[in-house]
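Obj: model holo form, ligand = 2-acetamido-2-deoxy-beta-D-glucopyranose.
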Amino acid sequence: MAHQATIAFALLSFGIAASFAQTICIPDPVGEIDLNAAGVLTWSASENCPETTYRVLIGVDGSRLFENIIRQPLLEVSSLPYCRYYNYSVTAISDHVLGMENYLVTPYELPGGTDIPIRNFRAAPVEDDLIIEWQTDHRFSYCISFYHLLIYDDQAEQPQSLTVTRPGYFKENVASCTNYRFEITSYYLTTNSTTQAFNFTVPEATNIPSLVEVRQDATTINTTWSLEKYHQNRCEVTALYVNGDRFNATYPIEDTRERPNVQVSISGLRANSMYYFNVSVENSAGVSEAVQLAVQTLPIDWS
Ligand SMILES: *[C@@H]1O[C@H](CO)[C@@H](O)[C@H](O)[C@H]1NC(C)=O
Ligand SMILES: *[C@@H]1O[C@H](CO)[C@@H](O)[C@H](O)[C@H]1NC(C)=O
Ligand SMILES: *[C@@H]1O[C@H](CO)[C@@H](O)[C@H](O)[C@H]1NC(C)=O
Ligand SMILES: *[C@@H]1O[C@H](CO)[C@@H](O)[C@H](O)[C@H]1NC(C)=O
Ligand SMILES: *[C@@H]1O[C@H](CO)[C@@H](O)[C@H](O)[C@H]1NC(C)=O
Ligand SMILES: *[C@@H]1O[C@H](CO)[C@@H](O)[C@H](O)[C@H]1NC(C)=O
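Output (holo structure tokens):
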């Protein structure tokens, strides 16, 4: 509002200037506006009137980013984001009278050889998935055309190679205990930034067994257990425990990628009796919660 009032006053002053030419000084437009490589905007001064100041407007994409009135014919604009076209408009003002504006529309280019570092890398597991995010300085955000992301998994031979336009990626189905290495490069104009690497290990989790099969006769109970597979949980499995009210057993496990089912055979039992037992698995995260089971042995078949 204040700005519009100033213009109205300037027009009024201009009208008066016709009849009182000696008392009103209309400042000449500023001379050539220039933006140097260090991000300093300069213009040649308007010198025909006393105590001239300059109104500087900076517009981008049709909207006003900055407006100020300054005394010196220069303005540091180096903190503006690179890789955008800015409209720098300068109007000389003397004693409330605005001269004609002059403007320069020019791209603010990234100086050659500038590296765009990746900052604040963050990885967050969300249920079975993993969100990774990173940032670059906001001054470079209009420059980057895409990011190249390489995801190395500690077991896979080939990294996953991706091109993403946003600074993040949602990786589905990550296995517990997997150690990932992420290499990120930002590309802009015709160049690329230095590749930066980050490591992340998916937190460990216990491996809860599930019952596949139960077979019993008068004196034996056989159970088959499947373990969480390697693509779900890579934490190293070491043993399966069977804790019963009348027996205990430990099955040591030599972990392999195949993770075959574990057969548990409990023999020497009494016929026609109910047995209660708990089965749990130990891995690098600890002992899992137990699966509780109640199985009745068969009566002796006298036939
Ligand atoms: C630049 O800004 C000035 C002042 O706001 C405006 O008069 C001019 O039309 C603009 N030029 C372009 C190319 O946007
Ligand atoms: C850009 O990437 C190329 C290979 O793609 C690499 O040789 C070069 O060193 C990279 N440039 C920078 C500045 O990291
Ligand atoms: C990332 O992990 C790799 C392999 O697991 C290792 O060689 C490297 O030193 C780790 N880097 C960091 C920064 O932890
Ligand atoms: C239980 O397993 C043992 C050993 O593998 C086998 O000899 C026996 O026949 C099985 N019993 C039943 C009821 O499946
Ligand atoms: C199985 O585990 C449950 C819960 O921890 C416990 O209450 C129960 O006594 C256990 N049963 C056996 C046979 O150890
Ligand atoms: C089985 O192990 C549990 C816990 O380790 C123990 O409390 C229980 O007495 C043992 N049962 C037998 C029959 O040995």
